[in-house]
Specification:
The chain is built from nine helices and seven strands, in the order αβαβαββαβαββαααα. The chain has helices at about 5-10, 30-35, 50-60, 95-105, 125-130, 165-170, 170-175, 180-200, 210-225; strands spanning about 15-20, 40-45, 70, 85-95, 115-120, 135-145, 150-155. Strand 2 (about 40-45), helix 3 (about 50-60) and strand 3 (about 70) form a beta-alpha-beta unit. Helix 4 packs parallel to helix 5 (about 125-130) and helix 8 (about 180-200) packs antiparallel against helix 9 (about 210-225). The longest helix has 23 residues, at about 180-200. The chain binds S-adenosylmethionine. S-adenosylmethionine binds next to strand 2, strand 4 and helix 4.
Length: about 230
C-alpha cells in the first residue's frame, strides 16, 4: 500500500505511461503502478546503494523484473533513449535537489515527458527552473500527511511561459483553486513568518536588510492571498 502522498502522486501518472521514478528508494511507486496495470513499464533510478538494493528486492518479490528496470545512477542518467519514457516522477526530495537533477540531466529529457514532481520545500526555485525551460504547470496540489505539508507539481514542456513572482512562490494552479489544504498551509506559514520577522527585528544588526525585506515581502503576499 502506498502512502497518501504517493497515492496522490500516482493519480497524476498518465494511464499506460512508461515511467521513470528517479530517487525511487524502495521502488514502491513503480511497483504499485505496475501491479495495478496503471503503467506499462518503468525504470526505478537510485543513486545510493541501500535504496537501490531495496528497490531491486521489491521488484523481485513482486515478479516485475521484466517490466521494471532498477538502475544505480545519478538522477536522469538512469534513463536511456530506448526506454521511451513518457513520464518522470521525482518525489520526496527538496525542490532544489529536484531542480538540480533536472538541470544536470536535461540532455536526457526529450521534452515529451510529463514531469510529476513532489518537492518537500523549495517549490519556488523548482518552478523558476520549469518556467525557464519552457514548462507549463498543468496541475498542482497540497496535501497534509504526518503533520507535514507536501506539494505536487505536474508539468509539461509546451513552449515559453511567463509566471509572476507570486505564481512562482505559491503555484499558479494553487492560487486559482485555493484548496483548503493550500490555504491551511499558508495560514500556518504566515504565523511562522511573523514570528521569524519579530525575531529578526529583535536582532536587527545580525540580519541583512535584504533578508528582512524578503521576509516582509513574503508576509505581504501571504496576507493578501488569505484575504
Ligand atoms: N521517491 C520516494 C518517495 O517519495 O517516497 C523516496 C524518497 S527518498 C526521501 C529520496 C531518495 O532519493 C533517496 O533514496 C535518495 O537516495 C534518492 N536520491 C537523492 N538524490 C538522487 C539522485 N541524484 N539520483 C537518484 N536518486 C537520488
Amino acid at each position: 500500500r502506498l502512502s497518501m502522498r504517493l497515492e496522490r502522486v500516482a493519480t497524476h501518472v498518465p494511464a499506460g505511461a512508461r515511467l521513470a521514478d528517479i530517487g525511487s528508494d524502495h521502488g514502491y511507486l513503480p511497483v504499485a503502478l505496475l501491479n495495478r496495470g496503471a503503467v506499462s513499464a518503468a525504470v526505478a533510478g537510485e543513486v545510493a546503494l541501500t535504496p537501490f538494493y531495496a528497490a531491486e528486492r521489491t521488484v523481485r518479490e513482486n515478479d516485475l523484473d521484466q517490466q521494471i528496470s532498477v538502475r544505480l545512477a545519478d538522477g536522469l542518467a538512469a534513463i536511456e533513449p530506448t526506454d521511451r519514457i513518457t513520464a518522470i516522477s521525482l518525489c520526496g526530495m527538496g525542490g532544489e535537489t529536484i531542480r538540480d537533477i533536472l538541470e544536470s540531466g536535461k540532455a536526457r529529457l526529450s521534452g515529451q515527458e510529463r514531469l510529476i514532481l513532489q518537492p518537500n520545500g523549495g517549490e519556488q526555485p523548482l518552478r523558476v527552473w520549469l518556467m525557464e525551460h519552457n514548462y507549463r504547470i498543468l496541475d498542482e496540489e497540497v496535501l497534509r500527511e504526518n503533520r507535514f505539508d507536501y506539494e505536487i507539481i505536474v508539468a509539461e514542456r509546451t513552449g515559453p511561459m511567463i509566471y509572476t513572482a507570486e505564481q512562482l512562490y505559491f503555484g499558479p494552479i494553487q492560487m486559482q483553486t485555493r484548496s483548503p489544504a493550500f490555504l491551511l498551509k499558508w495560514q500556518r506559514l504566515l504565523g511562522k513568518k511573523h514570528k521569524a520577522l519579530s525575531n529578526f527585528a529583535r536582532a536587527r544588526k545580525a540580519v541583512p536588510e535584504e533578508k528582512m525585506q524578503d521576509l516582509a515581502q513574503q508576509i505581504r503576499w501571504i496576507t493578501a492571498l488569505l484575504n
